[in-house]
Specification:
CATH architecture of the largest domain: Alpha-Beta Barrel
Distance between the termini: 54 Å
Largest sheet: 9 strands, mixed
Bound molecules: zinc ion
Number of domains: 3
CATH topology of the largest domain: TIM Barrel
Strand content: 15-25%
Strand order of the largest sheet: 11-10-12-13-20-19-18-15-16
Number of helices: 15
CATH class of the largest domain: Alpha Beta
CATH superfamily of the largest domain: Glycosidases
Helix content: 25-40%
């Protein structure tokens, strides 16, 4: 059987509904429900068999006492699934793994226990606080119960895929886990052992539950959700049919979590999906409305990162979807549908590989991406560069430049691999502790041309940029906020930008004014060390930028990148709020440029808000292209865009960017080129 396609326009429809609420789905009408979704251009919906309250939404014969007690449509899930599939809308069958309040109350012995011996709660809630966040342990008989319950769903309700939610990787000290740990030679009293065992448990569970789902239908799409997928999920990547990045930018994730996650996980040959929501803040935000511009930004960013789209919602307990919200979703998904031909099988193009800090510091927790990674993503995006996140095991050969932001330790094996990469023409940019061994005793990355001596003696210190690094910068000292390293420049170094220490470090004995001490007006130790193919910054520039965004940090990096990558894939002359993403559609012999211009504003204390679409006019683009360009047009209206080409560079102007603009750059095909050549020869 041919592999079923993963749909582009999905809805994740929560239905966590308390058993104390009466009249559940009293107004539900399957035809109306499916009609609203169809009209909103939705082509896949994730539907609930069981929510975090532990109530079932189908006519269970095995657990009739667990069906929601006030459910007016006893076979709600079956009715929903049938009505959707009749309209060719795919259905993912949802269940919850770790969070099930009903089961936790019935079987407290199945709840994970933390190292203090208390029942584990994902959100650290006490026993008398509201919430269904007690983590259930999948090494207890709970796992068999879960399979029995969900097995009945897979047996009786038609679906196209399976969505396992709350699939967390968490430490557990319950008797069942302790026994298994001892059998594996692990010490339950040791935190590192418990973490290793948490990973083992997650991998074991994922392998088990994927083959369980596939035993009902080998064509089922299987996906796990747990707030983040990243480096720690690599060992079980083949158990996922696709990766879904849960990332509601309002809350802990923020706007950088999604691109950072997607730019890494898209390296593993799986389809990727973004997952945002229609809520203002996060899940369960009833009767809140996501601003349309924010939803556009989030959905179109998914396309720009080479992903498909999911919007999360929760159906009102009386069984209705909000019609106006679905009109909004319909406007956005209608636009996605028109753009899809330019998104299908589009492969993101990247010439910079940024090492993910997750390889060394991953916790796997939602929204917990190291600052060095987010800072690198922010800086490179603002500078218009095309980049992936990578880890040390991937192929470096496809990148012209590798970036090791702030915290990437380099062992001998990686040093050798990076050495080979530089020898074959690759460029490196590293900062702060990147390039040191794990113990931070020495610099193992000899190509950087430095000897590591320890931490810098002064902080903050100052850079007065010289030569090519001074481009676009003020003539004077620039403060470097966070403490750098102390290094000596060695052989092969072509340029050193020195640092000026302050008059003294600020202490109670001597200080000056409110903040740090001013410049001592003499250069003392290296701040940026360049060889022909490398650059090393002593300061944690990426982390500082993520915390404070000093523009001079960006200028220093931009000046360094201009030397290492003089002809980037694409450039623009717009403001720093423009985001460019270049994808290649090889089969169509074209590349597609996504230009995004949405501006999140911190309008309130707690959230970044996108409310308005601020149009941009006449955005000038310079692109490196491998071949002769045949035509350039706007997508999807195919309005032609004039261009000029000089060798490998093509120049054009996007007349108007209204939030999201897609430009198709089409190449002259090989046979057309030959015809052209013949014509020229005759002339
Ligand atoms: Zn356990």
């Amino acid at each position: 059987m041919a592999e079923k396609e993963i749909p582009f326009r999905q809805i994740h429809l929560d239905f966590h509904t308390s058993e104390d609420i009466k009249g559940v789905c009293g107004e539900f009408d399957a035809e109306e429900f499916a009609g609203i979704l169809e009209e909103a251009h939705v082509n896949s919906v994730t539907l609930f068999s069981c929510g975090h309250h532990g109530n079932l939404y189908y006519d269970s014969k095995l657990f009739p006492e667990m069906v929601h007690p006030h459910l007016a449509h006893r076979n709600l899930l079956g009715e929903q699934a049938e009505a959707l599939r009749k309209r060719k809308i795919q259905v993912n069958l949802y269940t919850t793994i770790r969070w099930n309040k009903r089961v936790a109350d019935l079987h407290p012995e199945w709840i994970c226990i933390d190292e203090k011996g208390t029942l584990q709660d994902y959100k650290g809630k006490g026993y008398f606080e509201p919430g269904f966040y007690k983590n259930l342990c999948v090494n207890t008989p709970y796992r068999d119960f879960l399979k029995k319950q969900f097995g009945e769903v897979l047996e009786t309700i038609p679906g196209d895929g399976v969505w396992y939610d709350a699939a967390f990787m968490n430490e557990c000290c319950c008797p069942a886990c302790q026994k298994l740990m001892r059998e594996q030679g692990l010490d339950p009293a040791n935190k590192e052992d418990r973490q290793a065992f948490a990973r083992w448990t997650y991998y074991d569970m994922v392998r088990d539950l994927t083959s369980f789902a596939k035993s009902y239908d080998p064509d089922f799409h299987v996906c796990y959700n747990k707030g983040h997928v990243g480096y720690l999920d690599k060992p079980v990547k083949d158990e996922y049919s696709y990766f879904s990045f849960e990332s509601l930018p309002g809350v802990e994730w923020g706007y950088l979590d999604f691109p950072v996650s997607a730019k890494y996980m898209r390296n593993f040959g799986k389809e990727c999906l973004g997952l945002t929501s229609r809520f203002h803040t996060e899940w369960g935000d009833f009767h809140a409305f996501r601003n349309e511009a924010a939803m556009e930004y989030e959905v179109f960013s998914m396309l720009a990162q080479g992903c498909k789209c999911t919007i999360g919602d929760q159906m009102d307990y009386w069984g209705k979807l909000n019609k106006d919200m679905y009109k909004q979703i319909g406007r956005i998904y209608g636009s996605v549908e028109k753009k899809e031909p330019w998104c299908e099988n589009a492969v993101p193009m990247a010439e910079i590989g940024v090492f993910t800090a997750e390889e060394f510091f991953a916790t796997g927790a939602a929204g917990d991406i190291p600052g060095a990674s987010e800072g690198a993503a922010r800086l490179l995006t603002e500078l218009g560069h095309q980049f992936d996140f990578i880890d040390s095991t991937l192929d470096f050969g496809k990148y012209r430049l590798l970036v090791l932001p702030d915290v990437i330790p380099v062992d001998e094996e990686l040093a050798e691999k990076l050495g080979e990469y530089v020898k074959s023409g690759g460029k490196l940019l590293a900062s702060w502790h990147s390039g040191l061994d794990k113990q931070k005793e020495k610099c193992t990355l000899t190509d950087l041309g430095i000897t590591y001596l320890g931490e810098a003696p002064y902080s903050p210190d100052f850079i007065w940029p010289k030569a090519h690094l001074a481009q676009g910068m003020a003539d004077g000292e620039h403060v470097m906020y966070d403490r750098g390293t102390l290094v000596e420049a060695g052989e092969g170094v072509r340029f050193v930008q020195n640092v000026m220490p302050p008059v003294f470090n600020r202490t109670y004995e001597h200080f000056c004014s409110h903040l740090h001490s001013p410049s001592g007006r003499r250069e003392e130790y290296p701040g940026i060390v360049e060889t022909d193919r490398t650059a090393y910054f002593i300061h944690p520039i990426f982390t500082t930028y993520q915390n404070w965004a000093p523009k001079w940090y960006k200028s220093l990096l931009a000046n360094e990148l201009a030397r290492l990558l003089p002809k980037p894939l694409v450039k623009h002359d717009g403001p720093s709020t423009v985001q460019l993403n270049l994808l290649s559609q090889e089969r169509e012999d074209r590349v597609v440029l996504h230009t995004l211009h949405y501006v999140p504003v911190k309008k309130c204390k707690n959230l970044e808000i996108v409310e308005d679409v601020i149009p941009l006019y006449n955005l000038r683009i310079t692109m490196e292209v491998p071949r002769q360009v045949k035509e350039i047009y706007s997508v999807p209206d195919k309005a032609p865009i004039p261009f000029t080409q000089e060798g490998s560079q093509v120049f054009f102007v996007i007349p108007e960017v209204n939030g999201h603009h897609m430009t198709a750059i089409c190449f002259i095909q090989e046979n057309e080129r030959k015809k052209e050549d013949l014509k020229h020869e005759k002339e």
